Each structure stands twice: as C-alpha cells, then as structure tokens.
Amino acid sequence: MEQLSVSSGREVVKKYVVGSVYERAKIWVYQHKLGLFLVMTGIPLITTGTFCYVMYRKMKSYLNFGDFDPEKQDLIMNIQSYFDNSQQTCRNTLYCVVGGTNQKIKKYTEFPSREQLHVRDPAVWKRLLVKVFTRLLSSCYTTSLLSCFLQVQMVLIIRYKFLTFYIQKQYSNPNSNELELSLSDITIKEDIQEQFLSHTNFFLEQGIQGLIEFKIEPVVQQYCEGIVLNSFVEAQDVLEMIKQIRSNIERNIRFEQFLLPGEGDGFGVVEGSSEQGEDQAKLHLLLSETRNYIETERFVEAVKACVDINVNHSSRLWLEGIFGEKTPKLPWARVASLSLAADADRSNTTEGVNIDGML
Q: CA angle, 331 as apex, 330 and 332 as ends, to 5°?
C-alpha cells in the first residue's frame, strides 16, 4: 500500500507539476517566438558586426584613412608616380632588348644543318632535340632574369630619387647649404644611373652564353641521352620532362654569376667622370646593393615564378603546334622535325628532310 502511494505520488507530480511547467513553457515560447528569433539571430550579427567595426577602426588607425593632409597626399602620389615610371621603364627596356636576346639564344643553340639531318644519324637528331629543348628553356630563363634584374635596378634608382625628393620637401629654402650637404650623399647623377643600368650588357654579352652552355644545355643533354627516337610520346610526357629538367637546372642555382661581373672585372668602374672617386663610390654602392639582393632566396623565387609563367605559355604554344586531336602520340623524331619546321627563321629547313630512317 505504501509502494502504491509513493508511485501514485510520482505520477501526480509528473502529470500536474512537471507537465504544467512544460506546457506553460511551450505557451511562453509560442507567444514570444518572434522575440526569441530576433535575439538568436541578433547575437551573432552583433558579434560579427562588432568584430568588423573593431577591425575597421584598427585599419583606419593604422592607415590613417580620411586623415591625409595635403603634404601626405602629395608624398603618396609621388611614390606611386615613381613606381609607375619605373615599371614602364622596365617594360620599355625589355621590349627593346628582347629581339637581340632571341638572336643570341639562336646563335648559341644553333640547329643542325639540313645536310647533317639528311644523313639520318640518330646522334644528329638527338642533338636537334637537345637544341630544341635548350632554346625553349633558354628563352624563358633569359626573359625572366632580365625582367627581374631590371626591376631591382630601377627600384634602387627610384629609392634614391624619392629620398632626394623627400629631403627637399623638408627645407623651405631650396638653395640652402644645409640642403645641398644633405643631398650630396644620396644624389645619383644621370650619367651614373646610365652606367649602372648599362651593367645589363654583361648579361647580354656574357651571361646568356654562360647560362646556356654551363647550366641549361648540359642538363637537357643528360635527359635527352636516354630518348629512343622511334618511341612514341604524348604532350603530357614532354611537359613532365621539361618539369624534371627545370628542377635539375634550378637545384642550388646562383643567378648572380650570370647577371653581374665579379669584383675587378669592370664591376663599379666609372667611365669619363671628372669626380671619379665620389661617383665610383656611388656606382659601386648601387652595384653592391644589387648583388646583395639578387643573391637572396627571395630573388631566386621571383625568377622561378616568372619562369613558371613563361614556360607554361611557351610550351603550350609549342606543343599545340605539334600534337593534335588526330595525333595525340608522336615519335620523338617527328617531334624534333616538327619543332624544326615551326622555328620562324628555319621554316624551310625541313624541305626534303626524310625522317623515315629514324622511325
């Protein structure tokens, strides 16, 4: 009887007390569902909005948005102007010299003659493959190196020009002796700038040849030695081979040896200056700063990024002209022959050249 009363008491509590609270809670939630919805959605919105506002205030404080005075605006506009001018100068210079660099590359990667190819000697056709790959990669590395090197040179010159401009802005009297003294250490004369930029001639006259003969062609030759001329290959196989060749070329590479002469080999020598001591010191400083930068890993990575773009573009155009939907696979000898035919300066070289003996 006691057990029954306890059990019944529990049922009563569950039914009338707990049930009543639950029902009242359901009714309250139903009556205030709009308010609860706004609260539940408002909390994340408020939190997110607060975070964004705090970040905005921090960025505004850091960058001083809206608080520029005329002098600061003028300063920033001049920085942008100097940077834009340097970029345009680099592009114009690159356009001017790229034709000459291509001619030099063709000279150092000269293809076998038609008479040699008529012999049907597998060694000659393998040499043609070596020259094809070497020319492609040499063009990509040369353009990338020249572009990055010019960028570094122009940034250094622009830095000194901007420092000159900034110091001049600090003096109300542009003819003061104090201003002249302050500018004497950072002013780079036009002829010194020209001689500094003319050091790209070392790369054009010696660096390209050294890059091809000592760095690119030996690696290409190593990979081409194992090629069987009558074996078939797909475009993807060629791309993979180019990737492997590049990886080998770029292993522990030092680009500065191709870009600047060594100390004492015309490095920092000023020509035709009446103030050779001071001017030579400034030229030597510019070249030393250039060397310090192009020796860094950051410069190497920048060159590699440029080479990536050039190789992807050049190899795609090259392979699209060789492989097609009807010819997804070709023998290596045919790849060499079609590459030779596609070369602009040797479009007639393959007339009468029979590669059947290689297939």
A: 115
> Using one digit for the tens of pLDDT, what is the confidence trace for 94-108?
788 888 898 999 999
Residue 232's H or E segment, with its range, is strand 232-234
**Residue entry with tokens 């030229």:** 283
Residue partners of 265: CB distance under 8 A and separation at least 6: none
| Residue 329 DSSP class | E
Residue 214, Cβ density class (10 Å: 0-12 exposed, 13-18 middle, ≥19 buried): exposed
Each residue of 151-207: pLDDT tens digit?
Answer: 899 888 888 877 777 676 666 566 666 656 566 666 778 888 889 888 899 999 999
Rg (CA), the chain: 35
Residue located via tokens 């010191």: 281
45-49, 114-118, 120-124, 126-130: segment of lowest average pLDDT = 45-49
Give the strand pairing for 329-331 and 232-234.
antiparallel
